[in-house]
## 1
Amino acid sequence: MATTVWRTTPELILALDTRFGEPVDAYVNGSQVWLRDDGPGGAALEWRLHPVAGYARPTGMGTYDVFSRVALAVAEGTLPPTPPEKLWDGLECFAAYEDEVEPAVLATFAYAALGIAPDAAGLVDHEPIGLAWEQSGRTTSIVSAVLEQLAGPRTPPS
């Protein structure tokens, strides 16, 4: 499946908040999700902010409050309750509902929607990534696994 990925930065959180607003869904595992018609021909894209390995929700916040409170602090230039990079590894964007989109086309549309160029784009197989994450008890990084797949096989030095 074609995907684009960004590592978490305060600028990424600010762009998500400014351009997309509140997530349409938030999960107890830390994921934040937006579904938007940003793709080619108005195709639906899923934007998923992936939690860090071993994510723990900050004390005193509900599942649906984490993004808005962190984004507000970033926007105001104040100290967030928890730094964004301690909560989320990065953002991934892919075609929702298993629609087919070429990686370069997806990257172009994602960049236009978010206003920040992705760190990487290409084809990934989400099944082994999700399986490894579940089997580890959610202690592996989904974003690192995606980036590793996008980097391709590495040839050992000779």
## 2
Amino acid sequence: MTKQQEHARARRRKEARRGTQQVISESAKDKRLFGAILAVILVVAAAIAIPHFLPDSDAAPAAAPTPAAATTAALEEGQRLAAGCEQPPTLQTTPKTFATVPDKKTAAGRTFVATVTTTCGDLTFELDGTKAPQTVASFVFLAERGYWAPSPCHRVTSAGIFVLQCGDPTGTGSGDPGYGFGVENAPKDGVYPAGTLAMARTSDPNSNGGQFFITYKKTTLPTKGGGYTIFGTVTDGLDIVKKIASHKALPPNQNDGTPVSPISILSVKVTEKKA
């Protein structure tokens, strides 16, 4: 065999080995690719399968409860809670209104006891349906329908007039229940002893509605327009009113305005007082 023939044979053997190695390499590459594809398929299959094995509560978690802070009102600048008081709730988004004045016959000749739960404790009123039947009928009606739940006492005065005014769910001092009625049982001398429960109104004598005030000291009010309806007395909790009043109102007029120490009505429960 010539040297030329030996070189040609050696070249053919080398090319054959190279072809075999290439086939092995391609085969290994295919195996690795197949393995990777299989792994992806298994991961996707697992991801699809897992939720079906979880309880419904985990697959669709319930919404988180609303934080308690979201239900309370932010204090205005300068306000501070009085001892024993809790932070007031936010104002009602849509206060209730009513089309007609409640029938005064439902309260005429009857006496009621109202327990007014506030952020500073309970106030107890005795309501006189004999002397102020229309006003008491309205108060009972609004209480039973949750009109004041909740509502702030938006005004306190401390110069000549000593009152805490409440009963407006809007907190503005201009809210009403959708109806109005006239004055009844107003003192001719305009004197309102401490602990008196009376109706607030505008200059219109027929604008009595849902707002009322409590006198924490003897107070003399104008009699023009018929005065202001007395419909009950505070039998318990006047000390709470005095505590709120002692901190006065926010500037600029600390003798008449929004209380420095807020207080809000949370609920009102009324029962008839039996003889």
